[in-house]
Amino acid sequence: MTENELHIAMTSGRLSKAQVDVLVGNLIHQPELAEALFKEILLEDQEGTFNASWTFVHLMRKRLPYLLPFFGVFLEGLGTLKTESCIRPMAGVCEMVCEAYFKKKDPAFVKNITDDQLETMLTCCFDWLISPMNMAPKVFSMTSLYYLGLKFPWVHPELKQVLLDTYPSGTTGYQNRAKKTLDKLVKLGV
User: Fold this and answer.
1) Looking at the domain 3-187, which fold is it?
2) CB atoms within 10 A of CB 64
3) Rounded distance, CA 75 to CA 111, Å?
4) Cα-based distances in Å from 137 to 1, 113, 117, 134, 148
5) Structure confidence by residue, pLDDT tens digits, 100-135
6) pTM here?
7) How far are the Cα atoms of 39, 49, 117, 149, 157 from residue 13, in angstroms, in the given order?
8) Domain spans of the chain?
9) Which pLDDT belongs to residue 134?
């Protein structure tokens, strides 16, 4: 697949789950197209579609290390996203990165991601957590922020306060994740 073929696939109408699976199956063998796919997300954010973001998150679930060569570009793009259909999957990717870095301690992530980059992700996650959007990006963000707080101690008290303030108005899924996160924070003495 070429970059042009990828662009056509992303812009030729809504993709089915089966079509996304086929695309991901092809992209697994072409890691050099992962950055082009991310750039498609930046384009679709302006158009209000979500083919690229959906395809990207599925690719990242299978091959998260493909993100590392353009991680800086990824982080720069996160702050520009406006539509929830793009933000939600990218918040999910942030959660995957945090789990790889902090929970799994994957050397590829620990060695290649700088503290400055983690702080950029932290800013995006806090922005999503406190913004007036649907709950899914917030749920991914609170988990990312929990992990990021292991490196940046000031994060945990701030996260705790936001969760306490927003818990009553959250959906059941949000409340469940918030409770689990709050319980983890208590175990850390926050």
Assistant:
1) Leucine-rich Repeat Variant (1.25.10)
2) 17
3) 17
4) 31, 22, 19, 7, 16
5) 999 999 999 999 999 999 999 999 999 999 998 888
6) 0.96
7) 18, 9, 34, 40, 44
8) 3-187
9) 87
Token couple for 46: 């302006």
- Give residue-wise pLDDT tens across range 62-77: 999 999 999 999 999 9
Helix 51-63 and helix 3-11, axial crossing angle in degrees, nearest 10: 120
Tokens 């609170």 belong to 142
Tokens of 55: 């395809």
**Token digits of residue 140:** 């991914």
Q: Measured between alpha carbons, how far is residue 78 from residues 45, 84, 122 in Å?
A: 11, 12, 11
CA 189 to chain centre: 27
Q: Where do we find the tokens 């679709």?
A: 44
Name the pLDDT band for 48 (thresholds 50, 70, 90): low
Res. 47: pLDDT tops 80: no
Burial profile 144-179: b = 16 or more Cβ within 10 angstroms, e = fewer: bbbbbbeeeeebbebbbebbeebeeebeeebbebbe
